[in-house]
Amino acid sequence: MDKERISRLIARKLSGEASPTEIQELDAHLRAHPEDAYFLSILDDYWTMRTPPPAADDAEARFSHLLEMAGADEEAPQPRVRYLRRAIAIAAAVTGLLAGGWLYTRYSSQPPDTASAALIETVAKPGAKSRLLLPDGTVIWLNSGSRISYPSSFSDTSREVEIEGEAYFEVTKDPKRPFIVRTRDMQLQVLGTAFNVKCYPGDHKTEATLISGMVQVSRAGSQEAPVLLHPHEKVIISSNEDVTESKQETQRLIVQHLKKSIADTSLVETAWVYNKLVFDGEDFGEITAEMERWYNVTITIHDPSVARYRFHAKFENETITEVLSAMQLSSPFTFKINHNEVNIYK
């Protein structure tokens, strides 16, 4: 039985949602693999012993809270801690699996003068997208190849997270504790809102798109006044080092207005949250970066003219072969796929 199936069965058993057939299937597997039975018993202990926060009234939220508590337990014996860390690594995938993806979570120490003694870092592997529930009730969708770090418990004055890659936030409102998102190029401060942040290491720009509420955006390390973003606006900060210093102040931070007639599910900036791959005039070179993360492949375009092709399309459940075949109908090119390597030719 593969890990996805095991994790799903364990999650359903803990939440009380498993059918008799699923329970029989899980029991048969655990009899054959006692190491997974011990893993289940540890999680079951925490499931029954720990009380979820008031907002965690559904199975997935309860399981997320379970993982937070288990990872922060400093009193557990060392053998149990060792198994707990293994459990967290697998069970974090369960939480993501319920939303269609795999996660890798790890815990590390911070200096003693910081607000929290434990820093949680969660990574969505290439080809996967997952959903997180933070300690304050904020919900985050993490796109493939992205990572986020945050303290195991927020301070009394602020809630700060750091993101690399792409994430969509639905922030729980808390006027006494502003929610702060830090990226390579920008800092966002909100009270309660929905927005998308994109800042992959290989990109030459960082984007923040506001869906609802209000967001205050400032450039990292800059003393200039922050920009107040309104719904259906996007701010772009370019990190192109070729821009001259004299033009840098006027060209690096740009605010764009999005079409309000387009639903959030079809916006290029947020369609990925709804498991849709949308192209809206981007060239092939830009599109390949999205497709590499989406399908966990490496794409090489061997003709510069092909890299300049622009596409308008929307996909949901298509394979990479089906996507490329559909794109061929509008622009002439050929492709070859060898395992995880894709080569594009004229």
Overview of the structural elements:
With 346 residues, this protein is α+β, with helices and mostly antiparallel strands. The chain has 3 domains: 1-98, no CATH class; 101-270, Jelly Rolls; 276-345, Phage tail protein beta-alpha-beta fold. It contains 9 helices and 19 strands. It has helices at 3-15, 20-32, 34-49, 59-72, 78-97, 245-251, 284-295, 304-307, 320-328, and strands spanning 103-109, 118-124, 130-133, 139-142, 146-151, 159-170, 179-182, 186-190, 194-199, 205-212, 215-219, 227-229, 233-238, 253-257, 277-283, 298-301, 310-315, 334-338, 341-345. Strands 1, 2, 3, 4, 5, 6, 7, 8, 9, 10, 11, 12, 13 and 14 form a 14-stranded mixed sheet that branches. Strand 1 (103-109) and strand 2 (118-124) form a beta hairpin. The longest helix is centred in the first third of the chain and has 20 residues, at 78-97.
